[in-house]
Write a structure and sequence with these properties.
The structure is a single chain. This protein is 32% helix and 22% strand. It is α+β, with helices and mostly antiparallel strands. α3 runs antiparallel to α4. The two termini are 41 Å apart. The longest helix has 18 residues. β10 and β11 form a beta hairpin. It has a six-stranded mixed β-sheet, with helices on one face. The chain has a six-stranded mixed β-sheet with strand order 7-8-9-10-11-12.
Amino acid sequence: AEYMGDHRVLLSMTSPFPRVGPKEYINNESTEQKNGISRLNSEILMYLSKQRVKNIKQISIGDWNEEKQCAVLRQERGRMVSQFGWIAEGSKRLHPEEAVLLIDRGALELHVGGVPISLQQAFSLLLTTHTQPHTPTISTSAFIAYSYLSRSGYVLRRVDEHTLSQNANSLTTLRTLTTDPLFDVFVCASKGKRPQTPAFRMCVISVTTQFPSPSVLEQLHSLSPSSPLRFCVVDHGSVSFVDLTLVDPEHSLRNREFHVPTLKPQPQHAGKRQHSQQQQQQKKRRRR
């Protein structure tokens, strides 16, 4: 909830963000329509071009390790970074999707060859395919799905490729559908605490990918024995979740859209306020 999005920047501005209104699907080539579109585009670009100011004490600094395909933090700052990454060899490391998301949130300054890179450079360098063994690629579509769930309040963790390799046949079948990693999606009941069992396991596939047959689907479900498997389809930035379930022994499929709700952000310092209220109530009882 702490990194829900850039809408807070827009809400803090003095004038409201321009309302686009209903979309006109038919271009009538009128001067009024062209002027209206041009005016709205100019207003939106003006708002998006405003500089985002971030406290330097809240920005972590890391270096990109090309060999291991991860970002290694040398200075960890702020609470936002604590939700991401893992510890290895005494330092925190981030997967490419985690690093790009933190750069976009203004919480990470990533250096490549000793030089800090921009968000556009991070997209180009970190989300490209690579050929490291046992390390699946991370596509832009997978990052869009990852970013969508993270901004909605969920915590995502990559599924370890070595655990999947124990089921070689199913893993081979999975790689015919996608080269992206699987993600475990957790719902955090309270800040800083993550349940042991994920709500579901996400598999990102392309919109042009043919949906698996019942026999293939049965193999894929074996890769997620403890949590349901959900397929995520990204079509030009639009994210959809699909639940494919085997209905009967004859391998009939039930295909339905799976809705992922946006988690409500936890109010800041809610626990402190509640504790303060309890102390005040105790003082009043003592006075009585």
